[in-house]
Write a structure and sequence with these properties.
The protein has 234 residues and is mainly α. It has 12 helices and no strands.
């Protein structure tokens, strides 16, 4: 098996030879700080650059239009919120807590789902560190988003540019569409992360690849199926 000797090498090899990475991460403590720093860093940088680049007045009107029917007073109240400073803090704080909480929930799920493994030796904190390695594809797509933003000559640019591999970006789904959020959630890095989870779970447990794939896929399949039905029905 491919040998990984340090966390810097692991951050590179996770994209090409993830099996060796997960083996090394399982044997070494504190390596998961590296993907945490990279994922959080690119997420924060994207939010910072976008808020400083976008036409705030246009962005406010875009969000108001996406809300549907609103009274003039409600529109004025919402528009007053959209200052560059308030939007900056909202986006940065939201991005930080969204990623940390989602990864924590995922860690709880995988920890419980792998309890039946006879060789179970990893606890919640191990799986929480594991979740940050699954998030590494966001670094690649985040950099693509930054490049697209820097090259844009129009300040009236939708926030979907920060998810350049999503269906919403690729299909130009408008923000006021019922399918916008769903389309933004369906992106390349989601499936890449599921693949990495499959590799990692099979490496950290005695489960075969098929069972690992089921565990890795199940929460997304259930969540997105419910979401899809909700949009279609309501």
């Amino acid at each position: 098996m491919h040998e990984v000797s340090n966390p810097f090498q692991a951050c590179n090899d996770i994209f090409f030879k993830p099996n060796g990475v997960f083996k090394a991460v399982g044997e070494n403590n504190n390596w998961s700080w590296m993907p945490f720093i990279l994922v959080m860093g690119i997420s924060m940088a994207m939010q910072y650059l976008y808020v400083n680049f976008v036409d705030i007045e246009w962005f406010a009107n875009l969000n108001i239009a996406a809300q549907g029917d609103m009274s003039p007073a409600e529109e004025d109240q919402m528009r007053a919120f959209f200052t560059r400073e308030s939007l900056m803090w909202t986006q940065l704080i939201g991005a930080f807590f969204a990623i940390t909480v989602i990864n924590a929930i995922y860690a709880v799920y995988v920890n419980l789902a792998t309890r039946s493994d006879d060789s179970h030796v990893f606890g919640f904190t191990d799986w929480y560190g594991f979740s940050w390695w699954l998030s590494m594809p966001y670094v690649i797509t985040g950099l693509i988003g930054v490049v697209l933003l820097v090259l844009s000559d129009n300040h009236q640019v939708s926030p979907v540019i920060m998810a350049p591999t999503s269906l919403s970006y690729l299909l130009s789904i408008p923000m006021n569409s019922d399918w916008f959020a769903f389309g933004q959630a369906i992106r390349l890095e989601l499936f890449w992360g599921i693949y990495l989870a499959t590799v990692g779970i099979s490496q950290w447990t005695s489960f075969d690849r098929k069972k690992a794939a089921i565990i890795a896929t199940a929460p997304y399949a259930i969540l997105y199926s419910i979401w899809l039905v909700f949009i279609a029905v309501f």
